[in-house]
Amino acid sequence: MIRSLPSSSLYRIGYGVYVFLFFTFLLMPLVAICVLAFNDSNFISLPWNGFTLDWFFSESDERQGVFVDEELIASIVTSLSTGFFVAVLSTLVGTLAALLFEEEQFRLKGLLYFLALAPLVIPGVILGISILLTATSAGNHIEDTFGVDIELFRPSYWLVVLGQFSFAATYVMLLVTARLKKFDRTLEEAALSLKATRLEAIWYVTIPFLRPAIIGAFVVAFILSFSNINTTIFLIGSDPTLPIDLYSRIRFSSTPVLNAVSFLVVVTISALAIINLFVNRSNK
Amino acid sequence: MNSNSNNQSGFNITFYLLIVPVLIWLIFMIVIPHVEMFISSFLVEDDMGDMVFSFANYIEFFSQKIYWLTFVKTAAYSVGVTILAFIIAFPIAFYLTKVTSKKNAGFLMVLLLIPLWVGELVTVYGWMVLLGDHGVINHALITIGIINEPLNMLYTNFSMVVGLLYMSMLFMVIPVMSTLQSMDDSLIEAACDLGASKWDIYTKIIIPYSMPGITSGAIIVFMLVIGDYLAPNLLGGKNSLWFTEQIYNSFLQTFNWNEGAAFGFLLLMISSAIIWLALKLSGQKLEKVGS
User: Fold this and answer.
1) What are the pLDDT digits (tens) for A139-152?
2) Does B88 touch chain A (CB under 8 A)?
3) What are B185-190's contacts with CB under 8 Å, separation 24+?
């Protein structure tokens, strides 16, 4: 039943079949989407009518490909740039939080750590509505008092960035903390005894040690942002992110162009995952 | 770990550099919004257009059957999906850590992570393509002659549960794998040598050992499922109302934000209560869930 123990062939075959079915279940929706992105049909269904690249490049009225559809391109760009800012902000704050909770002692530490973990157990919807309510009432208050309308306090691009940052920072903190737990503190102490300031010790000794985790956390934060919809949907302004754009298309008018976009997402993500696998292997 | 000599000066600049951004994050993005949501949930607009204190939003919830029925159904389904996710995911986590070779496991982990990273919207859309009346599965079944009429699978509770399981079960696999990785194989070998049956080895040794991972996984799965919107909305039918959909309606369709805030607060209460109960029953701490 484990590598070192023999077990009956019935058990092994049964287990193997289950694992096979599980991975079929896992990959079926992705394979179906990707294959149908190339089907020469105006509907997202079988039968297979032959191979076409129309849903990527065609400029006709009936079939507008991904690379021609300006709205889609705009939402992809919005998602990429949102993801970048969310990743920068949450990597910065999440790393600081990891250092704070691992290396410092202070009053109310337990309470603050609890709050930092809270986004793990708060549904994304709640983060979305609570940030929307707060931003709007702050915005109204500022407008009433000073007569200026600040865009950040309305559903807008930057409010989306802040909303996604609020939970992405938690994931960064956890990933960096995991690596920090393996850090040999005596290295930092050695730096300190050689007259480095604490800040220098962190910058020149601790941060280089954490670099792989920080880079990994940056990627995770980017992906969290890129695929998020639950929090984003409440905070979105005039420029939708890709998932929001796709969501409204799915509800109102599905064409295989959705498959083509999904295909691009699946291929990009799979490439990233495979690169990640090889990087991890060569590190070992 | 204590801080260093800087402490004696009474002003530790590194400490403030670390804590100030973290405090800004937690106070402005977590604490204040939740307080604001709590306060808003007790406000209603009176005839003059002013906001006044009232329990009306909560009274509305308890007096309208559709609201609290949806609420109860959402909570019950979420518990059910969490249990199903455990049953489906546990053998996979065990397979990846203890049964298959390291090299295979690395490859299968990549396959596991792809749907997770691709994002829920794309995978939910994939299930719509598969399960629809003219979808891939019906087409295949009709072609090979098992059925004549398409099965009605999409827009039912069945398709909703499939979508919820699909997007959440990986969060059960990963924490269980990390506890199983630290499990010494000789525990299982010893039990086997002493003649324990497979069932006993699973239920008396392996599952108790991996309880911390199971609890972490269950909490994350439950939270994702109860707070999910896409699977119930796109895969569920008219009868598959989910409580998050009520919140979305209040905010984005009827624009009754105060009612939405009350619903949000209720959702937060039930999810915290069930998670708290799960932590108590399993003797775990929230701090462990993160790791």
Assistant:
1) 888 888 888 877 78
2) yes
3) B185/A2, B185/A3, B185/A4, B185/B98, B188/A1, B188/A2, B188/A5, B188/B98, B189/A2, B189/A4, B189/A5
